Queue: 3 jobs
Job 1
Amino acid sequence: MTFEPLEVFYSYADPDEPLQKELDKHLRLLQRNGLITTWHKRRILAGTDWVQNLDERLRTASVIQLLISDDFEATNYCDGPEITLAMQRHRAGQARVIPILLRPVDNWQGMSFGKLAALPSNDQPVSQWSDRDAAFVDVARGIRDALEEVQRLRPISPSVFPDILLRGGSHMNIYGSSTPPGNTKWVQYNDEGIYVDIDTSVANFKATPLYFTSLEGKTRHWKARGNNSIYQATRSGFRIYLYYSGITPNLANEWHWHINWLGIEF
Protein backbone atom coordinates (compact mmCIF):
# COMPACT_ATOMS: atom_id res chain seq x y z
CA MET A 1 0.00 0.00 0.00
CA THR A 2 1.41 3.38 -0.97
CA PHE A 3 0.52 6.84 0.25
CA GLU A 4 0.86 10.26 -1.25
CA PRO A 5 3.67 12.33 0.35
CA LEU A 6 2.62 14.69 3.11
CA GLU A 7 2.94 18.41 2.39
CA VAL A 8 4.91 20.38 5.00
CA PHE A 9 4.29 24.13 5.13
CA TYR A 10 6.90 26.52 6.58
CA SER A 11 5.70 29.72 8.26
CA TYR A 12 8.58 32.02 9.24
CA ALA A 13 9.80 35.61 9.35
CA ASP A 14 12.22 36.81 6.68
CA PRO A 15 15.23 37.24 9.05
CA ASP A 16 14.91 33.55 9.98
CA GLU A 17 15.30 32.28 6.43
CA PRO A 18 18.88 30.99 7.01
CA LEU A 19 17.63 28.83 9.89
CA GLN A 20 14.67 27.67 7.80
CA LYS A 21 17.09 26.53 5.10
CA GLU A 22 19.17 24.65 7.67
CA LEU A 23 16.09 22.85 8.95
CA ASP A 24 15.04 22.00 5.42
CA LYS A 25 18.42 20.34 4.81
CA HIS A 26 17.80 18.09 7.80
CA LEU A 27 14.47 17.03 6.28
CA ARG A 28 15.99 16.36 2.86
CA LEU A 29 16.13 12.58 3.38
CA LEU A 30 12.37 12.49 4.00
CA GLN A 31 11.92 14.43 0.77
CA ARG A 32 14.20 12.14 -1.25
CA ASN A 33 12.31 9.10 0.05
CA GLY A 34 9.05 10.59 -1.17
CA LEU A 35 7.56 10.88 2.32
CA ILE A 36 7.11 14.65 2.27
CA THR A 37 7.08 17.68 0.04
CA THR A 38 7.84 21.12 1.47
CA TRP A 39 6.48 24.54 0.65
CA HIS A 40 7.24 28.08 1.79
CA LYS A 41 6.57 31.61 0.60
CA ARG A 42 9.68 31.74 -1.62
CA ARG A 43 7.93 29.23 -3.89
CA ILE A 44 5.31 31.82 -4.88
CA LEU A 45 5.84 32.71 -8.54
CA ALA A 46 6.21 36.29 -9.69
CA GLY A 47 2.97 37.81 -10.89
CA THR A 48 0.70 35.44 -8.95
CA ASP A 49 -1.59 36.33 -6.07
CA TRP A 50 0.47 36.17 -2.84
CA VAL A 51 -2.48 35.82 -0.45
CA GLN A 52 -4.27 33.28 -2.61
CA ASN A 53 -1.13 31.13 -2.88
CA LEU A 54 -0.62 31.13 0.89
CA ASP A 55 -4.27 30.32 1.54
CA GLU A 56 -4.33 27.44 -0.95
CA ARG A 57 -1.17 25.86 0.44
CA LEU A 58 -2.32 26.25 4.04
CA ARG A 59 -5.56 24.48 3.19
CA THR A 60 -3.78 21.48 1.68
CA ALA A 61 -0.79 21.13 4.03
CA SER A 62 -0.73 18.13 6.36
CA VAL A 63 1.93 19.63 8.67
CA ILE A 64 2.35 23.36 9.36
CA GLN A 65 5.65 24.35 10.98
CA LEU A 66 5.74 27.68 12.81
CA LEU A 67 9.35 28.86 13.15
CA ILE A 68 9.22 30.92 16.32
CA SER A 69 11.52 33.87 17.03
CA ASP A 70 11.28 37.47 18.17
CA ASP A 71 11.04 38.50 14.52
CA PHE A 72 8.19 36.05 14.00
CA GLU A 73 6.44 37.51 17.05
CA ALA A 74 6.99 41.08 15.82
CA THR A 75 5.32 40.46 12.46
CA ASN A 76 1.66 39.92 11.69
CA TYR A 77 2.18 36.16 11.57
CA CYS A 78 1.27 35.50 15.20
CA ASP A 79 -2.22 36.96 15.07
CA GLY A 80 -2.81 37.14 11.31
CA PRO A 81 -5.05 35.07 9.05
CA GLU A 82 -2.24 32.60 8.31
CA ILE A 83 -2.02 31.41 11.93
CA THR A 84 -5.79 31.64 12.42
CA LEU A 85 -6.37 29.27 9.49
CA ALA A 86 -3.57 26.97 10.63
CA MET A 87 -5.05 26.64 14.12
CA GLN A 88 -8.56 26.11 12.72
CA ARG A 89 -7.30 23.18 10.65
CA HIS A 90 -5.30 21.85 13.61
CA ARG A 91 -8.33 21.87 15.91
CA ALA A 92 -10.43 20.21 13.22
CA GLY A 93 -7.87 17.41 12.89
CA GLN A 94 -7.11 18.38 9.28
CA ALA A 95 -3.47 19.34 9.86
CA ARG A 96 -0.77 19.19 12.54
CA VAL A 97 0.68 22.51 13.71
CA ILE A 98 4.21 22.25 15.18
CA PRO A 99 5.87 25.26 16.84
CA ILE A 100 9.66 25.17 16.39
CA LEU A 101 11.66 27.46 18.68
CA LEU A 102 14.45 29.06 16.68
CA ARG A 103 15.37 31.95 18.97
CA PRO A 104 14.23 33.02 22.46
CA VAL A 105 10.81 34.65 22.69
CA ASP A 106 9.24 36.00 25.86
CA ASN A 107 6.02 34.15 26.74
CA TRP A 108 5.42 32.47 23.39
CA GLN A 109 3.08 30.16 25.32
CA GLY A 110 0.65 33.09 25.50
CA MET A 111 0.13 33.01 21.74
CA SER A 112 -2.76 31.19 20.07
CA PHE A 113 -0.56 28.13 19.49
CA GLY A 114 1.17 28.36 22.89
CA LYS A 115 -0.41 25.20 24.30
CA LEU A 116 1.01 22.98 21.56
CA ALA A 117 4.08 20.85 22.25
CA ALA A 118 7.09 22.51 20.65
CA LEU A 119 10.45 21.44 19.26
CA PRO A 120 13.30 21.03 20.16
CA SER A 121 12.10 18.43 22.64
CA ASN A 122 13.68 20.21 25.63
CA ASP A 123 11.99 23.55 24.74
CA GLN A 124 15.43 25.16 24.38
CA PRO A 125 15.57 27.37 21.25
CA VAL A 126 17.88 26.18 18.49
CA SER A 127 20.08 29.26 18.78
CA GLN A 128 20.90 28.44 22.41
CA TRP A 129 22.24 24.97 21.74
CA SER A 130 26.03 24.67 21.83
CA ASP A 131 25.77 22.26 18.88
CA ARG A 132 23.29 23.64 16.35
CA ASP A 133 23.41 20.47 14.24
CA ALA A 134 22.34 18.46 17.28
CA ALA A 135 19.46 20.88 17.79
CA PHE A 136 18.24 20.40 14.23
CA VAL A 137 18.65 16.62 14.50
CA ASP A 138 16.39 16.74 17.57
CA VAL A 139 13.86 18.86 15.67
CA ALA A 140 13.98 16.59 12.61
CA ARG A 141 13.43 13.53 14.81
CA GLY A 142 10.39 15.14 16.41
CA ILE A 143 9.01 16.11 13.00
CA ARG A 144 9.51 12.57 11.71
CA ASP A 145 7.60 11.15 14.70
CA ALA A 146 4.77 13.60 14.06
CA LEU A 147 4.72 12.70 10.37
CA GLU A 148 4.41 9.01 11.18
CA GLU A 149 1.38 9.70 13.36
CA VAL A 150 -0.21 12.01 10.78
CA GLN A 151 0.33 9.38 8.09
CA ARG A 152 -1.23 6.71 10.29
CA LEU A 153 -4.31 8.83 11.01
CA ARG A 154 -4.85 10.28 7.53
CA PRO A 155 -7.77 9.09 5.40
CA ILE A 156 -7.01 6.23 3.06
CA SER A 157 -7.47 7.23 -0.56
CA PRO A 158 -9.97 5.18 -2.57
CA SER A 159 -7.24 4.72 -5.17
CA VAL A 160 -5.61 2.29 -2.72
CA PHE A 161 -8.48 -0.12 -3.38
CA PRO A 162 -8.94 -0.16 -7.18
CA ASP A 163 -10.44 -3.67 -7.35
CA ILE A 164 -13.09 -2.84 -4.76
CA LEU A 165 -13.92 0.39 -6.55
CA LEU A 166 -14.39 -1.41 -9.86
CA ARG A 167 -17.04 -3.55 -8.20
CA GLY A 168 -18.57 -0.92 -5.94
CA GLY A 169 -18.49 2.26 -8.03
CA SER A 170 -16.84 5.64 -7.56
CA HIS A 171 -19.50 6.78 -5.10
CA MET A 172 -17.95 4.75 -2.29
CA ASN A 173 -16.68 6.47 0.84
CA ILE A 174 -13.58 4.79 2.28
CA TYR A 175 -11.87 5.93 5.46
CA GLY A 176 -9.33 4.26 7.73
CA SER A 177 -7.57 5.17 10.96
CA SER A 178 -6.28 3.77 14.25
CA THR A 179 -6.62 4.33 17.97
CA PRO A 180 -3.44 5.83 19.50
CA PRO A 181 -0.83 3.21 20.50
CA GLY A 182 -0.18 3.41 24.23
CA ASN A 183 -3.16 5.72 24.77
CA THR A 184 -6.20 3.80 23.54
CA LYS A 185 -9.24 4.30 25.79
CA TRP A 186 -9.64 0.69 26.84
CA VAL A 187 -12.30 -0.09 29.48
CA GLN A 188 -12.29 -3.11 31.81
CA TYR A 189 -15.12 -5.52 30.95
CA ASN A 190 -14.47 -8.44 33.30
CA ASP A 191 -11.47 -10.26 34.72
CA GLU A 192 -10.47 -11.47 31.30
CA GLY A 193 -11.69 -8.80 28.95
CA ILE A 194 -11.54 -5.17 27.87
CA TYR A 195 -13.37 -3.11 25.28
CA VAL A 196 -12.98 0.15 23.40
CA ASP A 197 -15.49 2.41 21.67
CA ILE A 198 -14.18 3.55 18.29
CA ASP A 199 -15.28 7.01 17.13
CA THR A 200 -15.52 7.16 13.33
CA SER A 201 -17.45 10.43 13.07
CA VAL A 202 -14.46 12.09 11.34
CA ALA A 203 -15.26 9.97 8.25
CA ASN A 204 -18.70 11.61 7.86
CA PHE A 205 -20.38 8.36 6.86
CA LYS A 206 -24.02 8.92 5.85
CA ALA A 207 -25.02 5.37 6.80
CA THR A 208 -23.48 2.50 8.74
CA PRO A 209 -20.53 1.29 6.65
CA LEU A 210 -18.83 -2.08 6.50
CA TYR A 211 -16.16 -2.03 9.21
CA PHE A 212 -12.95 -4.05 9.14
CA THR A 213 -10.56 -4.16 12.10
CA SER A 214 -7.25 -5.56 13.25
CA LEU A 215 -5.36 -5.50 16.54
CA GLU A 216 -1.79 -4.19 16.54
CA GLY A 217 0.71 -4.01 19.39
CA LYS A 218 4.25 -4.65 20.58
CA THR A 219 3.68 -8.03 22.21
CA ARG A 220 1.15 -10.83 22.94
CA HIS A 221 -1.66 -9.35 20.87
CA TRP A 222 -1.59 -12.45 18.67
CA LYS A 223 -3.06 -14.39 21.61
CA ALA A 224 -6.02 -12.04 22.10
CA ARG A 225 -9.45 -12.99 20.75
CA GLY A 226 -12.30 -10.80 19.53
CA ASN A 227 -10.54 -8.03 17.66
CA ASN A 228 -12.60 -8.73 14.52
CA SER A 229 -15.92 -8.93 16.38
CA ILE A 230 -17.75 -5.62 15.91
CA TYR A 231 -20.60 -4.58 18.19
CA GLN A 232 -23.06 -1.67 18.19
CA ALA A 233 -22.00 -0.50 14.75
CA THR A 234 -23.40 2.85 13.59
CA ARG A 235 -22.33 5.44 11.03
CA SER A 236 -20.32 7.21 13.77
CA GLY A 237 -18.65 4.31 15.56
CA PHE A 238 -18.61 0.79 16.95
CA ARG A 239 -17.30 -1.27 19.89
CA ILE A 240 -14.63 -3.97 20.04
CA TYR A 241 -14.31 -6.49 22.89
CA LEU A 242 -11.04 -8.34 23.50
CA TYR A 243 -10.57 -11.53 25.47
CA TYR A 244 -7.19 -12.20 27.07
CA SER A 245 -6.67 -13.73 30.50
CA GLY A 246 -5.63 -11.12 33.08
CA ILE A 247 -5.74 -8.20 30.67
CA THR A 248 -6.32 -4.67 32.00
CA PRO A 249 -6.53 -1.29 30.21
CA ASN A 250 -3.16 -0.25 31.64
CA LEU A 251 -1.51 -3.47 30.53
CA ALA A 252 -3.02 -3.21 27.05
CA ASN A 253 -1.62 0.30 26.66
CA GLU A 254 1.75 -0.76 28.10
CA TRP A 255 1.86 -3.32 25.29
CA HIS A 256 0.68 -0.63 22.84
CA TRP A 257 -2.41 -2.58 21.85
CA HIS A 258 -4.53 -0.50 19.49
CA ILE A 259 -7.22 -1.02 16.88
CA ASN A 260 -6.71 -0.34 13.17
CA TRP A 261 -10.03 0.15 11.40
CA LEU A 262 -11.38 0.65 7.92
CA GLY A 263 -14.90 1.68 6.95
CA ILE A 264 -16.38 1.28 3.46
CA GLU A 265 -19.70 2.96 2.71
CA PHE A 266 -21.42 1.99 -0.54
Job 2
Amino acid sequence: MKPFNLQKFLAGEPITTLGGHQVVAFRYDTNFNDIFPLTVAIKDNTGLISNYQYSIDGEPLGTIDSNYILCIKDTELSINNNKQQTAVEWLEEIANKNGIQMSNYFKFTFEQAKEMEKKQIINAFWNGDNTDCTSEQNIKEFAEQYYNETYGGGEQ
Protein backbone atom coordinates (compact mmCIF):
# COMPACT_ATOMS: atom_id res chain seq x y z
CA MET A 1 0.00 0.00 0.00
CA LYS A 2 1.07 3.54 -0.70
CA PRO A 3 0.30 6.69 1.28
CA PHE A 4 -3.03 8.30 0.38
CA ASN A 5 -2.87 10.97 -2.32
CA LEU A 6 -6.06 12.88 -3.13
CA GLN A 7 -5.08 13.73 -6.72
CA LYS A 8 -4.21 10.11 -7.53
CA PHE A 9 -7.41 8.96 -5.85
CA LEU A 10 -9.54 11.42 -7.83
CA ALA A 11 -7.73 10.32 -11.01
CA GLY A 12 -8.98 6.79 -10.41
CA GLU A 13 -6.26 5.03 -8.42
CA PRO A 14 -7.88 2.31 -6.26
CA ILE A 15 -7.90 2.89 -2.51
CA THR A 16 -8.16 0.72 0.55
CA THR A 17 -7.56 1.19 4.26
CA LEU A 18 -4.41 0.49 6.22
CA GLY A 19 -6.19 -2.54 7.66
CA GLY A 20 -7.13 -3.79 4.18
CA HIS A 21 -10.84 -2.93 4.40
CA GLN A 22 -12.64 -2.60 1.08
CA VAL A 23 -13.76 0.88 -0.05
CA VAL A 24 -17.13 0.40 -1.75
CA ALA A 25 -18.17 4.02 -2.47
CA PHE A 26 -17.08 7.59 -1.84
CA ARG A 27 -18.13 11.22 -2.18
CA TYR A 28 -15.77 14.21 -2.41
CA ASP A 29 -17.51 17.48 -1.60
CA THR A 30 -15.68 20.52 -0.19
CA ASN A 31 -19.00 22.41 0.03
CA PHE A 32 -20.35 19.82 2.46
CA ASN A 33 -17.31 19.84 4.76
CA ASP A 34 -14.08 21.62 3.82
CA ILE A 35 -11.97 20.01 6.57
CA PHE A 36 -13.23 16.44 6.09
CA PRO A 37 -14.52 16.56 2.48
CA LEU A 38 -14.37 12.81 1.81
CA THR A 39 -17.23 10.54 2.77
CA VAL A 40 -16.15 6.95 2.25
CA ALA A 41 -18.23 3.78 2.55
CA ILE A 42 -16.07 0.97 3.91
CA LYS A 43 -16.88 -2.73 4.24
CA ASP A 44 -15.32 -4.21 7.36
CA ASN A 45 -14.24 -7.82 7.94
CA THR A 46 -17.75 -8.83 8.98
CA GLY A 47 -19.31 -7.44 5.79
CA LEU A 48 -20.86 -4.43 7.52
CA ILE A 49 -20.69 -1.22 5.44
CA SER A 50 -20.26 2.06 7.32
CA ASN A 51 -19.63 5.65 6.21
CA TYR A 52 -16.65 7.60 7.54
CA GLN A 53 -15.49 11.20 7.07
CA TYR A 54 -11.88 11.81 5.96
CA SER A 55 -9.52 14.73 5.50
CA ILE A 56 -7.78 15.29 2.16
CA ASP A 57 -4.79 13.43 3.67
CA GLY A 58 -6.84 10.25 4.19
CA GLU A 59 -7.07 10.72 7.96
CA PRO A 60 -10.40 9.71 9.52
CA LEU A 61 -12.51 12.10 11.56
CA GLY A 62 -12.52 11.26 15.26
CA THR A 63 -10.70 8.54 17.11
CA ILE A 64 -11.49 5.46 15.06
CA ASP A 65 -9.02 2.62 14.67
CA SER A 66 -5.84 3.45 12.69
CA ASN A 67 -6.70 0.47 10.45
CA TYR A 68 -9.20 2.85 8.80
CA ILE A 69 -6.58 5.33 7.51
CA LEU A 70 -6.90 5.55 3.71
CA CYS A 71 -4.13 4.28 1.42
CA ILE A 72 -3.62 3.93 -2.32
CA LYS A 73 -3.93 0.24 -3.14
CA ASP A 74 -0.68 -1.19 -4.46
CA THR A 75 -1.63 -2.70 -7.80
CA GLU A 76 1.86 -3.87 -8.71
CA LEU A 77 2.45 -7.58 -8.49
CA SER A 78 5.12 -8.69 -6.07
CA ILE A 79 6.06 -11.61 -8.28
CA ASN A 80 8.71 -11.01 -10.92
CA ASN A 81 9.84 -13.58 -13.49
CA ASN A 82 7.62 -16.18 -11.78
CA LYS A 83 9.60 -15.76 -8.55
CA GLN A 84 7.92 -14.76 -5.31
CA GLN A 85 9.19 -11.89 -3.25
CA THR A 86 10.18 -12.66 0.33
CA ALA A 87 8.93 -10.54 3.22
CA VAL A 88 12.36 -8.95 3.74
CA GLU A 89 12.67 -8.13 0.02
CA TRP A 90 9.18 -6.60 0.12
CA LEU A 91 10.05 -4.47 3.16
CA GLU A 92 13.24 -3.24 1.50
CA GLU A 93 11.32 -2.40 -1.69
CA ILE A 94 8.67 -0.45 0.25
CA ALA A 95 11.39 1.52 2.05
CA ASN A 96 13.07 2.35 -1.27
CA LYS A 97 9.79 3.27 -3.01
CA ASN A 98 8.86 5.64 -0.20
CA GLY A 99 12.18 7.44 -0.40
CA ILE A 100 13.57 6.21 2.90
CA GLN A 101 17.30 6.81 2.78
CA MET A 102 19.10 3.84 4.31
CA SER A 103 22.56 4.06 5.75
CA ASN A 104 25.18 1.48 4.78
CA TYR A 105 24.48 -0.20 8.12
CA PHE A 106 20.82 -0.76 7.23
CA LYS A 107 21.68 -1.90 3.69
CA PHE A 108 24.05 -4.45 5.23
CA THR A 109 21.38 -5.44 7.78
CA PHE A 110 18.85 -6.02 5.00
CA GLU A 111 21.35 -8.26 3.21
CA GLN A 112 21.90 -10.23 6.42
CA ALA A 113 18.13 -10.54 6.94
CA LYS A 114 17.67 -11.79 3.36
CA GLU A 115 20.36 -14.41 3.88
CA MET A 116 18.76 -15.53 7.18
CA GLU A 117 15.35 -15.74 5.50
CA LYS A 118 16.83 -17.76 2.63
CA LYS A 119 18.28 -20.28 5.09
CA GLN A 120 14.95 -20.50 6.93
CA ILE A 121 13.04 -21.15 3.70
CA ILE A 122 15.52 -23.83 2.59
CA ASN A 123 15.39 -25.51 6.03
CA ALA A 124 11.60 -25.40 6.07
CA PHE A 125 11.44 -27.00 2.65
CA TRP A 126 14.00 -29.62 3.62
CA ASN A 127 12.22 -30.48 6.88
CA GLY A 128 8.82 -30.52 5.18
CA ASP A 129 10.05 -32.79 2.43
CA ASN A 130 11.33 -35.28 5.02
CA THR A 131 8.08 -35.73 6.93
CA ASP A 132 5.72 -38.68 6.85
CA CYS A 133 2.68 -36.42 6.51
CA THR A 134 -0.06 -38.07 4.49
CA SER A 135 -2.96 -35.64 4.78
CA GLU A 136 -3.47 -31.91 4.46
CA GLN A 137 -4.41 -31.70 8.16
CA ASN A 138 -1.20 -33.51 9.18
CA ILE A 139 0.88 -31.18 7.02
CA LYS A 140 -0.73 -28.09 8.60
CA GLU A 141 -0.18 -29.45 12.10
CA PHE A 142 3.43 -30.36 11.29
CA ALA A 143 4.04 -26.91 9.80
CA GLU A 144 2.65 -25.21 12.93
CA GLN A 145 4.75 -27.46 15.17
CA TYR A 146 7.87 -26.81 13.06
CA TYR A 147 7.29 -23.05 13.24
CA ASN A 148 6.70 -23.04 17.00
CA GLU A 149 9.75 -25.22 17.70
CA THR A 150 12.01 -23.34 15.29
CA TYR A 151 10.89 -19.74 15.78
CA GLY A 152 9.08 -19.85 19.12
CA GLY A 153 5.61 -19.11 17.77
CA GLY A 154 6.12 -15.35 18.06
CA GLU A 155 7.61 -15.46 21.56
CA GLN A 156 10.93 -13.70 22.03
Job 3
Amino acid sequence: MAENKIEQYLIDLMYTYRQVENNLWYIEDEEHTLSGVAVMLTEPLVIIRVVVMDDPGKNSLEFYTKLLELNACEMVHGAYALENGKVILIDTLEYDTMDYGEFRAVLDAFSLALTQHYPVLSKYRD
Protein backbone atom coordinates (compact mmCIF):
# COMPACT_ATOMS: atom_id res chain seq x y z
CA MET A 1 0.00 0.00 0.00
CA ALA A 2 1.35 3.41 -0.97
CA GLU A 3 2.10 6.00 1.70
CA ASN A 4 0.11 8.76 -0.05
CA LYS A 5 -1.93 9.30 -3.17
CA ILE A 6 1.01 10.54 -5.27
CA GLU A 7 2.84 7.27 -4.86
CA GLN A 8 -0.38 5.33 -5.40
CA TYR A 9 -1.02 7.22 -8.64
CA LEU A 10 2.53 6.51 -9.84
CA ILE A 11 1.99 2.83 -9.09
CA ASP A 12 -1.40 2.82 -10.84
CA LEU A 13 0.13 4.51 -13.91
CA MET A 14 2.86 1.83 -13.92
CA TYR A 15 5.62 4.42 -14.23
CA THR A 16 9.19 3.60 -13.40
CA TYR A 17 10.05 5.89 -10.49
CA ARG A 18 11.99 6.08 -7.26
CA GLN A 19 11.38 7.95 -4.07
CA VAL A 20 14.43 10.16 -3.59
CA GLU A 21 13.43 11.42 -0.18
CA ASN A 22 10.29 12.02 1.82
CA ASN A 23 7.74 13.73 -0.47
CA LEU A 24 10.01 13.68 -3.55
CA TRP A 25 9.70 11.19 -6.41
CA TYR A 26 11.76 10.99 -9.57
CA ILE A 27 10.17 9.48 -12.69
CA GLU A 28 12.64 7.84 -15.06
CA ASP A 29 10.38 6.12 -17.56
CA GLU A 30 11.56 6.04 -21.17
CA GLU A 31 8.55 3.98 -22.26
CA HIS A 32 6.23 6.86 -21.38
CA THR A 33 8.70 9.55 -22.54
CA LEU A 34 9.07 10.82 -18.99
CA SER A 35 12.71 11.06 -18.11
CA GLY A 36 13.92 13.13 -15.19
CA VAL A 37 10.48 14.30 -14.04
CA ALA A 38 10.42 15.37 -10.39
CA VAL A 39 7.20 15.20 -8.39
CA MET A 40 7.38 17.10 -5.10
CA LEU A 41 4.80 17.37 -2.37
CA THR A 42 5.14 20.70 -0.60
CA GLU A 43 1.81 20.99 1.20
CA PRO A 44 -0.58 22.18 0.01
CA LEU A 45 0.96 21.90 -3.48
CA VAL A 46 2.22 19.12 -5.70
CA ILE A 47 4.94 20.49 -7.98
CA ILE A 48 5.74 18.57 -11.14
CA ARG A 49 8.79 19.72 -13.10
CA VAL A 50 11.40 18.57 -15.56
CA VAL A 51 14.48 20.20 -17.02
CA VAL A 52 14.05 20.31 -20.78
CA MET A 53 17.37 21.82 -21.84
CA ASP A 54 19.91 24.54 -21.12
CA ASP A 55 18.93 28.07 -22.08
CA PRO A 56 20.57 28.20 -25.52
CA GLY A 57 21.82 31.77 -25.20
CA LYS A 58 21.72 32.41 -28.95
CA ASN A 59 18.76 33.73 -30.94
CA SER A 60 17.25 34.64 -27.57
CA LEU A 61 14.35 36.71 -28.85
CA GLU A 62 13.31 34.04 -31.35
CA PHE A 63 13.73 31.27 -28.77
CA TYR A 64 11.74 33.04 -26.03
CA THR A 65 9.04 33.93 -28.54
CA LYS A 66 8.76 30.24 -29.45
CA LEU A 67 8.47 29.28 -25.76
CA LEU A 68 5.68 31.81 -25.24
CA GLU A 69 3.89 30.60 -28.35
CA LEU A 70 4.08 27.01 -27.15
CA ASN A 71 2.75 28.06 -23.73
CA ALA A 72 -0.16 29.92 -25.32
CA CYS A 73 -1.15 27.50 -28.06
CA GLU A 74 0.04 23.99 -27.26
CA MET A 75 0.37 23.49 -23.51
CA VAL A 76 -2.77 22.00 -22.01
CA HIS A 77 -1.20 21.56 -18.57
CA GLY A 78 1.90 23.27 -17.25
CA ALA A 79 4.13 25.85 -18.85
CA TYR A 80 7.67 26.43 -19.97
CA ALA A 81 9.77 28.59 -17.69
CA LEU A 82 13.39 29.61 -17.15
CA GLU A 83 15.22 28.72 -13.96
CA ASN A 84 18.94 29.14 -13.31
CA GLY A 85 19.87 28.98 -16.99
CA LYS A 86 17.62 26.00 -17.70
CA VAL A 87 14.37 25.68 -19.63
CA ILE A 88 11.90 23.73 -17.52
CA LEU A 89 8.35 22.45 -17.76
CA ILE A 90 6.43 23.04 -14.55
CA ASP A 91 2.94 22.61 -13.21
CA THR A 92 1.35 22.71 -9.78
CA LEU A 93 -1.69 20.93 -8.39
CA GLU A 94 -3.44 21.27 -5.06
CA TYR A 95 -2.81 18.05 -3.14
CA ASP A 96 -6.11 17.93 -1.25
CA THR A 97 -8.27 18.22 -4.37
CA MET A 98 -5.97 16.47 -6.86
CA ASP A 99 -7.42 13.31 -8.34
CA TYR A 100 -5.96 10.54 -10.47
CA GLY A 101 -7.27 12.00 -13.75
CA GLU A 102 -5.78 15.41 -13.08
CA PHE A 103 -2.39 13.95 -12.06
CA ARG A 104 -2.30 11.74 -15.13
CA ALA A 105 -3.33 14.60 -17.44
CA VAL A 106 -0.34 16.69 -16.32
CA LEU A 107 2.11 13.83 -16.89
CA ASP A 108 0.52 13.01 -20.26
CA ALA A 109 0.86 16.68 -21.26
CA PHE A 110 4.51 16.69 -20.19
CA SER A 111 5.17 13.52 -22.19
CA LEU A 112 3.53 15.00 -25.27
CA ALA A 113 5.39 18.30 -24.90
CA LEU A 114 8.76 16.59 -24.47
CA THR A 115 8.12 14.45 -27.53
CA GLN A 116 6.76 17.15 -29.82
CA HIS A 117 8.46 20.33 -28.64
CA TYR A 118 12.01 19.22 -27.92
CA PRO A 119 12.91 18.80 -31.62
CA VAL A 120 11.67 22.34 -32.25
CA LEU A 121 13.41 23.86 -29.21
CA SER A 122 16.66 21.95 -29.68
CA LYS A 123 17.28 23.81 -32.95
CA TYR A 124 18.25 26.81 -30.80
CA ARG A 125 20.97 24.95 -28.87
CA ASP A 126 24.60 25.97 -29.22
